[in-house]
Design brief:
four-stranded mixed sheet, about 45 residues, alpha+beta
Length: about 45
């Protein structure tokens, strides 16, 4: 399995890449949104 999902910071800067299973978890927990088939963007959460 390869890290083929690009992760984008809320301000638009690329952070790195992650595994598809990890990306699914971030999407499920609503910590990220899907931009396209191979890119997710993290959501800034207020604490």
């Amino acid at each position: 399995m390869t890290k083929n999902i690009l992760v984008i910071h809320p301000n638009g800067e690329p952070v790195g890449s992650t595994y598809p299973k990890r990306a699914k978890g971030l999407l499920k927990k609503r910590r990220a949104v899907m931009l396209d088939e191979s890119t997710i963007q993290l959501i800034h959460l207020q604490s």
